[in-house]
């Protein structure tokens, strides 16, 4: 028998136990070149819903670390948003410009189907409605599919609307008024979500300062919204009222916080704090942080509505409530004397604990959370 000599880089069950992950699925298909990982963090509230990211990771370990971190984030996002959904996420290891194919996404769809609804997928960085349509050929456990199938389509404009609502709540808390007219807002990254966010902000009369590494995206923001363009490393020090991270994670860190002039950090990016302690530092410096997983929940709220038979009006009403949810986080933070990121985690954890207790009673037949699937 051939011996395998795999160096154990870390002990996988120690990693899973540390944050209480339920399951990891490694998906391999030679014919299509699929190498994917699905991570399910917690299904107390319901099936795990979270997007599929495609990224050319430097190593398999980096892919695993990313999918685990993102899956846990979805547990908190879905719980805080009041959804009856758990947290999970998936990554495909590959180059989104050169490696996409029908076969690849269909192979992934078959793995999702094999989980019988424990994990439901959707778009994330570098995956599109067209990719979801291929996945949909193999499984019903996919959202963000084309409107032609009665689905919700691209979640980004809805995420943007939620971020806009959350930003207004933060302005109300910090400045005493939720009007953004005349406010200067520095936006990092003007991609799918932030372009739509900038449209709302421009329509309300905010001044926009933007940065991106994509020249075309910058030109579009300059032409459509009269935005001022700065270089990527200049965005943190811009004189502004609000800093909106809408590109990458971990941008709130030891190097960037001392540069910030903003009084509020509120944007779309996932995992904005490099470490939890950076949320404490923002608080100490009098900068109000709108926790990312609360403010950027619009996309998942929108795709989750598909599970009940998609209704745009109903979905947008739920997204509006990000304003109230954000206010609740600020109130909890003030009441308990904790930074806002701690208050948001508490809000999510309390809901999971409450439902865990109330759903522990025996029912011969439980209401199916996937009735529409
Ligand atoms: N799309 C959604 O519905 C959704 C939902 C929740 C959270 N998010 C998060 O919001 C963020 C943006 O998502 P998106 O869908 O708009 O992605 P996107 O890829 O369309 O946009 C990101 C933009 O950031 C730019 N960028 C990359 N590196 C940069 C850098 N160093 N400096 C400045 N700009 C840089 C890119 O060129 C791109 O224009 C991501 O972190 C994503 O995880 C998205
Ligand atoms: C389900 C998706 C719309 C989730 C989205 N990619 C997010 O990070 O919230």
From TrEMBL:
Protein origin, superkingdom: Bacteria
Keywords assigned by UniProt, alphabetized: NAD, Oxidoreductase
Keyword Oxidoreductase: yes
Gene3D superfamilies: Leucine Dehydrogenase, chain A, domain 1, NAD(P)-binding Rossmann-like Domain
Presence of keyword NAD: yes
SUPFAM superfamilies in UniProt: Aminoacid dehydrogenase-like, N-terminal domain, NAD(P)-binding Rossmann-fold domains
InterPro entries the UniProt entry points to: Aminoacid_DH-like_N_sf, Glu/Leu/Phe/Val/Trp_DH, Glu/Leu/Phe/Val/Trp_DH_C, Glu/Leu/Phe/Val/Trp_DH_dimer, Glu/Phe/Leu/Val/Trp_DH_bac/arc, NAD(P)-bd_dom_sf
The protein's name in its UniProt record: Glu/Leu/Phe/Val dehydrogenase
């Amino acid at each position: 028998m051939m011996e395998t000599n795999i160096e154990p880089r870390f002990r996988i069950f120690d990693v899973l136990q540390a944050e209480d992950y339920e399951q990891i699925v490694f998906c391999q298909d030679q014919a299509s070149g699929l190498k994917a990982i699905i991570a399910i963090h917690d299904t107390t509230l319901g099936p795990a819903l979270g997007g599929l990211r495609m990224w050319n990771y430097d190593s398999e370990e980096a892919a695993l670390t990313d999918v685990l971190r993102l899956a846990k984030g979805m547990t908190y996002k879905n719980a805080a948003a009041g959804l009856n959904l758990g947290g999970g996420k998936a990554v495909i290891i590959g180059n989104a410009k050169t490696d996409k194919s029908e076969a690849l996404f269909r192979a992934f769809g078959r793995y999702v189907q094999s989980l019988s609804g424990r994990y439901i997928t959707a778009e994330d960085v570098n995956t599109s409605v067209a990719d979801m349509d291929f996945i949909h050929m193999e499984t019903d456990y996919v959202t963000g599919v084309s409107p032609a199938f009665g689905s919700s389509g691209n979640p980004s404009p809805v995420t943007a609307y939620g971020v806009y609502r959350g930003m207004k709540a933060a302005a109300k808390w910090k400045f005493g008024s939720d009007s953004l007219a005349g406010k200067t807002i520095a936006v990092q990254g003007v991609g799918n979500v932030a372009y739509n966010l900038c449209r709302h902000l421009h329509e309300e009369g905010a001044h926009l300062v933007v940065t991106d590494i994509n020249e075309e995206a910058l030109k579009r923001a300059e032409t459509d919204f009269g935005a001022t363009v700065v270089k990527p490393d200049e965005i943190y020090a811009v004189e502004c009222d609000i800093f909106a991270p809408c590109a990458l994670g971990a941008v709130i860190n030891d190097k960037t916080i001392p540069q910030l002039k903003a009084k509020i950090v509120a944007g779309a990016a996932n995992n904005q704090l490099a470490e939890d302690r950076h949320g404490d530092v923002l608080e100490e410096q009098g900068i109000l942080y709108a926790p990312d997983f609360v403010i950027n929940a619009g996309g998942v709220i929108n795709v989750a509505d598909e599970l009940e038979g998609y209704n745009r009006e109903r979905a947008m009403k739920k997204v509006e409530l990000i304003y109230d949810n954000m206010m609740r986080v600020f109130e909890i933070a003030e009441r308990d004397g904790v930074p806002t990121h701690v208050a948001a985690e508490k809000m999510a954890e309390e809901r999971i604990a409450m439902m865990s207790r109330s759903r522990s009673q025996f029912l011969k037949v439980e209401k199916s959370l996937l009735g529409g699937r």
